[in-house]
Design brief:
four-stranded antiparallel β-sheet, alpha+beta
Length: 227
Amino acid sequence: MSQSTVIDSTGLEQFEKNDSSIRFGHLRYQEVASENLVCLNDELWLHKHTAFAFFEMSNAMHKDGVVPVIIKNGYRSYERQTRTFEYYRVKKELGTAKTLTRVALPGHSEHHTGFAIDIRLPKQIEDRRLSRSDSYKWLKKHAYQYGFYESYKRDNIFGVIFEPWHWCFNGCAESRAIFSTRSLLLKHIDPSDQVLLDIIRSNDPMINYSDNLFEKFPKIYSALATH
């Protein structure tokens, strides 16, 4: 089973917002409370804990002689996630199936929490391919010390494309609680179990594969049922 076999080529209108705990490999997340957001500029808002930790990490990169990365995206509302999805589906001409491997459905994005960031290198850097940079190598080695993890590594279990630019803060009690189900899935999903991977990456596993998960993967079922 693959994503192309469970969806057609129409747009976002076929996916109504619902309370499904996971859809196409993306867990459901509530939008962060506005009082917990801080503004870095007119277009960029972050959870206050994310902002503080990022500035600490950026200073450490500078001290280590590495070019500090720049945040280009942070908190996204449900409405903005909708626009982002349609941008890739329509303007970038990816279609629905490919878009679902890189953009979460509205209601299922880590960006809703204010803890997720998309980063880039400064524009003056000649080779701006992040995944080949010393900055990325530094992040892979040191980001965890500041509470950040790379959400979608190569060949991740969630079926999302490799996103070296997408990182998430998990260094406070609030973020650890929010991402606890994600942590449990990473711990208990065998990346070689293609049947389970296909279920997790499908449209609505807890509706379409509930019995299968309950019988064969009780820990995963329990985590998703309480998410």
